[in-house]
Amino acid sequence: MPVSAGRDEWQVIVAGAGNAGLCAGIAALQAGATAVAVVDAAPEKLRGGNSSLTKSMRFSWRDSAHLARLLRTSDTGLVEELVAGRSEYANEQYLDDWLRVSGSQVNTALIASIIGRSASAITWMYESGQRWEPRKNPLPGDVPVVLEGGGQGLQDRNFEQFEQLGGRVFHDSALTDIEVTVDGMYHIKGVGPAFPATCAALVLASGGFEGNERMRERYLGESWRDVKLRGVPFNKGVPLMAAIAIGADKAGNWAKCHATPQGILLPNHMLPGQMQESHALARYAYPRGIVVNRNGLRFFDEAADYGNLTYVTLGQKILEQPGKVAFQIFDKAVLDADLLPKSYLEDPASVVAASIEDGARRLFIDVENLVETVRAHPRVGTPPYLFVPVVCGLTFTYGGLSVSPNAEVYGGGRPMIGLYAVGEIVGGLYDQGYPAGTGLTAGAVLGRAAGASAATYAMKIGELL
Ligand SMILES: Cc1cc2nc3c(=O)[nH]c(=O)nc-3n(C[C@H](O)[C@H](O)[C@H](O)COP(=O)(O)OP(=O)(O)OC[C@H]3O[C@@H](n4cnc5c(N)ncnc54)[C@H](O)[C@@H]3O)c2cc1C
């Protein structure tokens, strides 16, 4: 029920119906709020955000029985195969992985607190209807389980749960402005049927600014202006800038972003509903071969760490190469052992070459340099060779708002009462690199905390009014 008699007054409004926003909405309803609305810029048929294109969440796990419960299986053999000799994924290991990959300009306390709550957030999601399944052909370091039905399944279940609990979703509703009223409520304006509206607590969950060409150019640099997006075009950073306009503090590295190697046929952006196509464009098997640029030179250590911990470094570096393109090359041993995803071989831009010279000529790579690079790099064996051209695909931006471990937005270093931020709009979680599966987890942990806290606050305000 609305906080007061007005038609457009809510206890809690969440801006953005990705995983983070819907986790916040679900948690707010579970905590007892009865008037909770989620407003989203996308039309209903394109609902789901980047979250609908995802696959897995990284979380701490204690032992294989923990994973077996999540998979609802008593088949211990299956789980033992999945964990491949690992007995647990402890908080300490998770934190070490995150910090090793992310770089130094991060909020370590916030990250540690997210990791510490990752296992319980997964249990909470499971109890709220989420489901997991075994990961097929895991690479070393991969999370052993993935979301059932991938990000599409995740988001379908999130919407279902939110609406079953009585939440209201407004599609085609893009928030543009936030005002704080004299009695401390949030008055939001925008384009679409949800506006104008007022709420006691506002949760911002509208992703980063990756879909905003001008902001990309301004914060990431000129070369990012025309980059292709791996995700949806709706995350333009408007609520992010609206929060800053009312005094929210910025956090994190605004000059960096998550970007990965993608098949050269990646379109300008992807849409919800294209999860399979999106997964088929990933080109993360490079640790099994070498990566060169058009000059035939290596520019990246393919074996520096597990692929799922280095793929962002490679994605970013591709944009710095001549023509903003690179080539992954694999030898006969890799092809014979069937070590590459099917999509590598099915990519119409891939070339199977009888020799290094042949592949280089067909793809306009400097022949002499490439022959020398391969000679100096004995991990590439005998022909035939598979050449796979790759480009950089931008996933999301790292710069965002400063928040407490409870997702309260800081303004002038202090929590802004009733204002929360969750998901990719939060800054300070990544600096240079990104460990796969952490974005959804951070969104779920902070979304859950924000929703519960927003509901409690809104109900208290309701009693006072
Ligand atoms: C192809 C792809 C694969 C990925 N795979 C993984 C993975 O496997 N694991 C993982 O952890 N992370 C993955 N990520 C990163 C992942 O998307 C994020 O960590 C997570 O889904 C972000 O959730 P979110 O709720 O913050 O954003 P989103 O899911 O993008 O949701 C943001 C929502 O805000 C809405 N919005 C934007 N502006 C406004 C506005 N002005 N008003 C109202 N609504 C607005 C958008 O329409 C959108 O629905 C992937 C990303 C991509 C693009």
State the secondary-structure class. alpha/beta
Give the names of the bound compounds. flavin-adenine dinucleotide
Please report the first level of CATH classification, the CATH class of the largest domain.
Alpha Beta
Helical percent range?
25-40%
Q: What value does the average pLDDT take? A: 94
Strand content: 15-25%
Largest sheet geometry: 8 strands, mixed
Q: Can you tell me the CATH superfamily of the largest domain?
A: FAD/NAD(P)-binding domain
Record field, number of beta strands: 18
Distance between the termini: 14 Å
Molecular structure report:
There is one protein chain. The strands form four sheets. Strands 1, 2, 5, 6, 7, 8, 17 and 18 form an eight-stranded mixed β-sheet that branches. With about 475 residues, the protein is an alpha/beta fold. It folds into two domains: about 10-210 and about 400-465, 3-Layer(bba) Sandwich (FAD/NAD(P)-binding domain); about 260-395, Flavocytochrome C3, Chain A, domain 1. α2 (about 65-70) packs across α3. The chain has helices at about 20-30, 65-70, 75-85, 90-100, 110-115, 120-125, 150-165, 215-220, 240-245, 275-280, 305-320, 330-335, 340-345, 355-360, 365-375, 440-465; strands at about 10-15, 35-40, 130-135, 145, 170, 175-180, 185-190, 195-205, 230, 250, 255-265, 290-295, 325-330, 350-355, 385-395, 400, 410, 415-420.
